[in-house]
Amino acid sequence: MINALRGMKDLTFEESERFVHIVTTAIGIAKKYGYSYIETPILEETKLFRRSVGESSDIVGKEMYQFMDKGDNDVCMRPEGTAGVVRSFVQAKLDRRQNEKFKFYYYGPMFRYERPQKGRLREFHQFGCESFGEGSVYEDFTIIEMIGDIFKALGIGYKLQINSLGCPKCMPPYRENLISFLTECKDELCEDCNRRIDTNPIRVLDCKNEKCQSLLVNSPKLINNLCESCDNDFNKLTTLLQSANIDYEVDTNLVRGLDYYSKTAFEFVSDEIGSQSAIAGGGRYDKLVEFLDGKPTPAVGFALGIERIMELVQMPETSREGYYLGAMDAEAVDSLFPLASKKRATDKVTVEYGAKKLKAHLKGADKVNARYCAVIGEDEFRDGTIWVKDLVEKEEFTIAQSEF
RNA sequence: GUAGGCGUAGUUCAGUUGGUAGAGCACCUGUUUGUGGCACAGGUUGUCGCGGGUUCGAGCCCCGUCGCCUACCCCA
Fold it and tell me: Would you say A36 and A105 are in contact if contact means Cβ atoms under 8 Å apart?
């Protein structure tokens, strides 16, 4: 027997229904916010992710599904969605159309070569949105509000954490500041953090090590060292969230795992799904379009993890629906098909091809959760009629096949 | 990559100090020759993950291996 690869899952029945429910709910809301669908390839040149996601991230450092294809191209299964959308945006020269806004939503599989655990798969699915050309913090607010709408529509509880990562004006001086702080207490920090001081000092902030965290209480906070523009935007964002009654907490240690974020960063978390608690994350990435050879274009985006959300949504109980058609004698089976074709114009129809006893048909109708069980037996076949039973109201009647 | 837990029927699981495997659910049949869900009665289903070792004898003990889960790391 051949099994699915490690960290990859098949979805069927109730699970696949839930998956589709999440995607269609998110699409409906994204459309109301003016987003249109973008489909980009799953396979991209590896350097796209090296340049956008960043060499220092774990995603690029050790989690990429990367290989050489038959044409000797260095390619990679996308580990996240934003890079491909931005690449597409630049390739279509939409960056040249300054003053225009572009809003895209996407969904599909992402791949990261990690150890699977609860809420973490090697192939997983994200729904995401990217908004280009709008530098206003109102757009950051609107995108957070939209995610809130999606979770509300799905009936999911969450906590929202926000932070500002600053911009090229205020981040570098802060970074230097932080490095000197970290260097001073270097000996007491964990091994990983010592490595991070050189590779990505910002990441020390969200180290899970308790001792590190206790030392970091006194570390300089970026939120207190923002430039005027970043500070104004962050304050505006919190004001907007408050007036919209969206609860949030400022998490000064919230650092997104991808290098391209600046200014607003946010994460939606749930405490009901194990240690992989982020159900959505995103932020502003005003410099990424330039990094990928486009004209400077501000942008904000987010992605939500469909499998993680699947753990949280309850589907309404399915009710009986449609028709089950069967015959009790082999020669009557043929006459089911025109009836099925006709009914399918408006209803769900299941046809049983085998001749069976009435009892077996009734059970069959139960099994496919049909509302009506319709059977042609000996009498009905002779008379050109069909027997129909409403399995909910327990009413039954026999009508001409032409009236079915 | 590291650590812990678990692999027995379609499924959820039990299986004593080692004596050639069991239950619920599901499925099939019947009680009812044309009336479902409920009830009752019967019935089918296993390379005990795989390979080796110890033993008269291994689901159980030992070694190895593969897989799954959880956690670290990191992230959606």
Answer: yes
